[in-house]
Design a protein that fits this description.
Elements lengths: L14 E5 L7 E8 L6 E8 L9 E4 L14 H12 L5 H18 L8 H11 L4 H13 L7 H4 L11 H36 L7
Antiparallel strand pairs: 1-2, 2-3, 3-4
Helix pairs in contact: 1-2, 2-3, 2-6, 3-4, 4-6
Amino acid sequence: MKCAHCLQHFHEVFSTADLKPDRGARSFGVKWATCPACGLHNVFLERIALRGGLHLPTMVHPKAAARTALSTDVEQKYAADYSEACLVLSDSPKASAALSRRTLQLLLREKAGVKPSDLSKEIEQVLASGKLPSQLGDAIDAIRNLGNFAAHPMKSTNTGEILDVEPGEAEWLLDVLEGLFDYYFVQPAVLQRKKDALNKKLAEAGKPAMK
């Protein structure tokens, strides 16, 4: 299995414990596997059917599988909403997608410089600008198709609305945000740090700095 904390794969060995039936005669079981890489528990709750058999287990700790940690170069106002969208993903993909759509729209307006409109038209604007790498542009364009904007125009006109989502839509929005964060924040910051380091060496050698 893949550890929901550190995303490393390991051969799981589950420990189990059964809970006594509650007053409603419902019975539950708990099982957990400890990741050898990070030492953290992956805990699942199982509901045991009265006439035998098990319902599919539900992960209760952590509440959602981890995603790649954001770089500190990502501005906090974007990182905060992204983190919240990740946190609620397992409990409510609808809420996660709403947070992501709102964050995407803000990012396109403030970093891509699109003219404020509905999200679908803003996506068209950033694609028409030709400034994004082709793979990232294709990923953003897929949001409209995956989210079925034509059938659900509220996703575009009211990005923060809690609306039904298509399978995989909420996860795809998070993936796209990660790509945009890398493009708008991480890569420029990395290049700037390299430039600063080179200018320092040039200054020590008595040479002019890079412009």
